[in-house]
Structure formats: C-alpha cells, structure tokens
Specification:
single chain; alpha+beta; five-stranded antiparallel β-sheet; three-stranded antiparallel β-sheet
Length: about 575
C-alpha cells in the first residue's frame, strides 16, 4: 500500500497534465514558482553566470494585495435571515449568539487568511476537523491534477511531517496503531522528522473497492510499512476555494500565475538596465600608440604631461537606451494592470491631470463589478461552509443553557422586546397575589416600574435556555454576497423603508401588511426587529403625578406603590 502511495506522489510531482495541446501544467512546479516570485526569488539563484547579483523587480505583490482588499468581508457581514414560517425574534437572538461565538472561535482570522492566500495561489483548501477549519499547505497536498474538484479526484494525499514528540501526542489523541514501533524505527535512522501520508480514495480489498481513509507512516525502510489507521468514510473533510477556474486542471489561477511572463520580462529589462548603468560608470580611453601601457586613473599624477605618438581619447560609454528601458517597463506594467484589473483608480493613486470625474467613477465601477463577481463566488462557498460545518458545531455547543451578553444597540433592542413581556408577567403576578385585576392606570404604573428597572442596566447577560435553537437549524439563511451587504444598496433600502412607513403607518400594525413588509425588509438585508415601533412608556413620576389625589384627610402625599420584585432575568426573558 505504501508503494502505491509513493507512486501517486511521484506521478504528481513529475508528470505534466496537458489541458489542451500546447498547454501543459504541473501543479507542484507552479506552486513552487509562486512561492519564489511572491518572495522576490529566482528559480536559478540570485547571481548570474558572471557572478553579478540579479535584481528582482517585483510586480506581482501589489495585484495580490489589491485583490485581497477588494474581496474581503468580515463576520459582521454575515446576516441570519428568518426562513418562511420562522420566528424573527428567535432569529435575532440566534444571529447575535452566533456572531459572538464566531468571534471567540476567531473565524474572522480564518476569513482573512482565505482572502490573503486566494489571489496568490489561486486555490485555498480548508480541512474541517470536528467543525474547526484548518488550512492545508498546498506544498504537501497531492491530488489528481486534472480533476475538476476534490470530490472528483481519484485520490487525495496530504503529507504530514512530525517530530517524534508531536507524533506521539497526536497518535495518542487519535488512537493510531503501531505508533511506538514507528518512533523506535525512526530513531534508528537519520531523518529528523516522521513522514505520514493521509490518503482519501478508493482502494481494493478482497476484490471489493471502497472509499477509505488510510494513514501510513513512511520511515524509508524497504518493504516496511506501518498502517496507523484504516477506515471507511463517506466524504472528504476538505473545503476548496478558487479564484479563477478553468476545465482540465484542479488548481485555480491566481494573480501570480497570470503575471509570470510580465514578471520575467520586467526582471530582464531591469537587470539589463542595471548592467548598462554599471558599464556607463567606467572611464576608458583609447589610443593608437602601442607605447601607452598604463592606467590613467592610477598611474598618472595631476598635472603630468603625456608624450605619445597618437592622441588619447575617452571611449564614449553613455547609455542611449534609457528611454527604451523606461517605455518597455511601462508597457509591461500596463499589461499587468490589464490582466489583473489593478489600475491606478483601485490602487488609490492620483489620476492623471485632466481626467474627468465621470470617467474615474465609471472605471471604478467597472473594476468593482469584476471583483464583486469573484467576491460573490467566494462568499457562496464560505456560506456553504458556515451552514454545513460551522453552524452544526455552534448548535452542538450552544444546545445547553448558556448566557448571551448584550450591550449598545443590541441591549436597547432587547429592552424593547422585553418590556411588553415583563409587564404582562408583572400583571399576572399581581393577580395571583391580590386576586385583583389591575386598572388601566395601575398597568401603566407597572409598566413604568418595569421600564425603570430595565433602564438601569448598562449591559445584560441573557440566559438562553436549553434547546432554544433546536427548531431554527433548518430555517435560516446566511447572506454574505456582495449585493446584499452593499452600503449604497442598504442605504437606499433604509430610505425606501422610511418612505413606506411614513406613507402608510399601518405597515407596522396591520398583520397582513406587516408580514409582507417584513419579508421585503429581510430581502433587502434589513432586520425587521429594528423597525418595530418603540413603546413610549411614561416615567414612574409621571404616572404617580397623574393619579387622583386621595379623598378624606387632607395633607400628605402619594407614596410610591410597593410591588414585588419583577423577575426579568432567566429563561422567561426570551420566550416568544
């Protein structure tokens, strides 16, 4: 089995895939070249055959950084929407709970790294282990180079290199077989690291082909193999993201691969100019007199008179191709900008003098449309990751009773949601204690007491009961595509919502209109909870001041009625 794995790896490293006649591709060599070019290194070394240093005029980093910034989005852009038949209030709690959890899990750092590496390599692979994403090093990732996706690849091999200490720790955690023998045999050799192959793909056993996950340790001893794990699996644990994809090869096309030729030619021109400037600094003379055999820079003193049969004249070493070098580099830089949409508008540079504002806005809009398309493709893949992998882990961890901290605008909205429920509960508690149904004035007084108690809180720890999200698992949508979170679109939707409510105030009260209005808000990326009308609650002093004065004995004042403490914490807070 180990021999089969090694043959697949050797085939991956040495053979080229012919996408079409005349276009051959090797994934390993392409990735190695990308590493070199991004870090301003030559494949043939830093010095030429004359011993002079070769300068690297890097033109690929800037397009990569621009692309990263253009497609970036954060966890704050992830919106949880209420599905048909769902509960907007429960969705409101779910969204805030999910975002706090993703912040603790540092999911934003995962997104940032995806956006950073994707323009560089053209592809990014995440490995999901127990719901947690880990980045795969493409240098140690072997796939069928001609496969359209990982799911269609005949095999996937991930190479791991462990120190003996690290290997033992991981082997114990994952309950691998034969790990002590592997460490013993490894220490008999001279290799510093233990190599482990993790392969996914179909393998034959007793005439039956099955999709299996196999881990084998390679200690480079002939005819010796240690199978650490061998199990049947239904799916691969990898998620893939691509910048630009073409049929016939798995690896996506990134910015650096597109700019290979401009980078090579720019380096050639830069080093030719460097060589030329070196020659132009030399001072050389010529003479027909064979008797002149001295160095005028070192052998001739100031004021000395030379007697020669033929005049001594300086050799013209002036470089007259400087304008050519400059125009040639400009042409290749323009080619770079055309192929990567890295024009001066998106780089934030000052536009040429006389450029009309309309032209600049049109150019910026067209460039933005290109990156929006890439951003949307990436966002849809990230959306699948969140729905299929991240949210199930979140639900498993948050299925127990836990607390949710609310501050700022979230706390204000929570207070509005809580006020009606807490007032109703206080009314029922009063009825139970006194067997008396409160009057309208007493209800207002109760509401004022609740409002004052709620108002004092600067933050709130809300208790989320056990299983609160169990019926929301399949009734959510996560909208992170570019159109849904565009600032201009959102601002336009807010203005339209304001106009609609102003023209027809019953949109927030009429049940039928309210349903359609809330669906329109969510389709525009707005939360319906934010548009619920705030309840105006009179202060306790206003309610008491408006109560009729007591009859009978004159004098004295109206004392504040005493009510039992109103429980506004616990599970009851978020019943809907």
């Amino acid at each position: 089995m180990l021999e089969k794995f090694k043959n697949e790896i050797n085939q991956f490293e040495r053979e080229f895939v012919e996408v079409v006649p005349g276009f051959k591709f090797n994934q390993k060599k392409t990735i190695e070249r990308i590493y070199l070019y991004y870090n301003s290194k030559y494949e043939t070394g830093e010095f030429d055959n004359q011993g002079d240093k070769k300068y690297f005029y890097n033109i690929v980093r800037t397009p990569c950084n621009i692309a990263t910034k253009a497609i970036d989005f954060d966890t704050k852009d992830i919106k949880v929407l209420t599905a048909e038949g769902g509960n907007p209030r429960k969705t409101w709690y779910f969204e805030r709970d999910l975002k706090f959890w993703m912040k603790d899990q540092k999911f934003g750092a995962v997104l940032n790294r995806i956006f950073f590496e994707l323009p560089i390599f053209g592809s990014v692979v995440l490995k999901i282990i127990n719901g947690t994403p880990y980045f795969v090093d493409l240098r140690n990732f072997i796939v069928d180079q001609g496969a359209d996706s990982l799911e269609k690849s005949n095999y996937i091999v991930e190479v791991h290199n462990y120190t003996p200490v690290e290997f033992r720790k991981i082997a114990q955690e994952r309950k691998w077989n034969n790990y002590e023998e592997v460490i013993k045999k490894h220490r008999e050799g001279k290799k510093p690291l233990i190599k482990v192959y993790e392969r996914y793909g179909e393998l034959e056993e007793d005439g039956v082909w099955a999709f299996r996950k196999v881990l084998i340790a390679d200690i480079e001893i002939k005819d010796v193999e240690f199978i650490l794990s061998d199990e049947l699996v239904d799916e691969i644990p990898y998620e893939e993201y691509h910048w630009e994809k073409i049929p016939g090869r798995w690896l996506g096309i990134g910015r650096i691969e597109i700019l290979l030729d401009p980078q090579v030619r720019t380096n050639e021109i830069s080093n030719q100019e460097a060589k030329s400037s070196q020659w132009s600094t030399l001072r050389i003379w010529q003479s027909r007199d064979p008797g002149v055999n001295r160095n005028l820079l070192t052998d001739v003193e100031n004021g000395e008179i030379l007697t020669v049969d033929s005049e001594i004249m300086p050799v013209d070493m002036v470089d007259r191709n400087l304008s050519y070098y400059e125009s040639e580099i400009r042409r290749w830089l323009a080619n770079r900008d055309e192929m990567t949409f890295s024009y001066d508008v998106i780089r934030g540079e000052r536009l040429p003098s006389g450029t009309p504002l309309g032209s600049a806005q049109l150019a910026a809009g067209m460039i933005g449309s290109y990156f929006d398309q890439i951003r949307e493709n990436v966002a849809m893949a990230v959306k699948d990751l969140i729905i299929d992998k991240i949210i199930p882990k979140f639900l498993s961890e948050k299925s127990k009773e836990h607390t949710l901290r609310l501050v700022g605008e979230d706390l204000d909205k929570y207070k509005e949601l809580l006020l009606d429920f807490a007032t109703e509960k206080s009314v029922f508690d009063l009825i139970e204690r006194t067997n008396h149904y409160p009057t309208g004035r007493e209800k207002e007084l109760l509401r004022g007491v609740v409002a004052e108690q709620i108002k004092r809180d600067k933050e709130k720890l809300v208790t989320i009961p056990r299983g609160f999200y169990k019926d929301i698992q399949y009734k959510i949508d996560i909208e992170i595509t570019g159109e849904a979170i565009d600032i201009r679109v959102k601002a336009a939707n807010l203005w339209m919502a304001l106009q609609a409510v102003t023209a027809s105030p019953d949109l927030l009260t009429d049940p039928i209109k309210k349903k359609f209005f809330y669906q329109w808000l969510e389709s525009g990326g707005l939360s319906p909870i934010d548009f619920e009308p705030p309840t105006t609650t009179p202060s306790l002093q206003e309610v008491v001041g408006q109560m009729p004065a007591p009859t009978g004995r004159a004098g004295g004042g109206v004392s504040r009625p005493a009510f039992a403490p109103i429980p506004i914490a616990g599970r009851e807070e978020i019943r809907v």
